[in-house]
Structure prediction request, 159 residues.
Amino acid sequence: MNKANLQSQGFALASVWGGPQKVRYYAPDGRVKEEIPEIRERQDGVVYDVLLAQGYTLTLPENPKPHCDGCGNWHNTGEEVKQCIGRKRVNAERWERFAKKKLKQADTQALEDKISRLEEQLGRLLAREEKTGGSLNGFLLQREANETELSKTSTEHRG
Ligand SMILES: [Zn+2]
Prediction:
């Protein structure tokens, strides 16, 4: 394949002849970019110029397309740029709301865990209180009595 063939297929390929050489590319919005062509090969063996694949051309575009700060590409009309930026903002807001909600859920989850641990402890305490038939005070008195009984028993054994 000769140089003319490659160029006819839309390749800049200047680096192949006479070492790296900058080529003038035109962005779809008409802005000029001088770069050494970067040629890559796809998995199926097709070679392509990276900038040309991105939409740059070797000639000044006849109908320049507006650049979009939202997505970094070019759109056909200024209206499309507006829509793209609007969509991006909506998505950003949606993401922010989602993140805030998640954060809140995490906080709530931690609190719920704490509460359920407390409930468990309270449940055990109440169950014990029920067994001893009455107030918590009764439970404590009972416990005290048991301890006295135990110490008496051990004293008796020793004596
Ligand atoms: Zn866009």
In short: The pocket of zinc ion is lined by residues 68, 70-71, 73, 75, 84 (CB under 6 Å). The chain has two domains: 3-64, 65-136. Residues 3-64 form one domain. The chain has a mean pLDDT of 82.
